[in-house]
Amino acid sequence: MNTLLWIVVIVAVLVVVALIAWWSVERQRSAHLRERFGPEYDRTVREVGDQRQAEPLLAERERRVQRYDIRPLTPDDQAHFADAWRAAQAHFVDDPAAAIAEADNLVGDVMRRRGYPVGDFEKQAADLSVDHAAVVENYRAAHEIAQRNNQDHVSTEDLRQAMVYYRTLFAALLDMREPQQTEVRR
After folding, report:
1. Residue 89 forms part of a structural domain
2. What pLDDT digit, counting tens, does each position of 63-109 carry?
């Protein structure tokens, strides 16, 4: 009987240790995803409705982007895109709606040149969130304003704000400076 009691105690201890180890690994994974995705983590949890369902989606997104051949821009590419950006900003004065369309296209061009697949906006934004979590909400907000502008007229102030959002993302994609998140006003 004494041996049976020891076996039960050892098994119970092993189960407790295994549970603690599992819990610790899960917490580390959650902490990694929170840090990696920042505000995108919270947005995804809200969208999915459950942290346990959102985290595997974020982890898969991370694995998918790791398979891409993401590369920095050459100095010539940086200069070319920076010039194109300045032209789009200058165009804003005369035709804000057209400048927003230019900005959206430039972001797509830079993404393509860096090695991100482009096409489906939500997938693009999700892919960007892996490496540019601090500014992906700006991209979503700017794109939403651009889409609304295609359907009906939006205010010049909304278009100006979209241009600011695009500029923040554009600078991050060009790797010209550390991106600072511009708070999205809704």
Report:
1. yes
2. 988 898 888 899 999 999 999 999 999 999 999 999 999 999 999 99
Domain count, the chain: 2
| Structural tokens at position 183 | 């708070």
Same-domain check for residues 18 and 108: no
Mean predicted lDDT score pLDDT of the chain = 87
Q: C-alpha angle with apex 110: 154 to 178, nearest 5 degrees?
A: 90
Packing angle of the helix pair 75-94, 156-174 (nearest 10 deg): 170
Q: Which of 46, 66, 86 is the last residue of a domain?
A: 66
CB 182 within 8 A of CB 118: no
> Does 57 share its domain with 125?
no
Residue 29 CA, chain-centre distance (Å), reads: 18
Confidence of residue 176 (pLDDT cuts 50, 70, 90): low
Structure pTM? 0.75
For residue 143, give its domain range.
75-174
**Residue of 173, 156, 75 lying closest to 116 (CA atoms):** 173
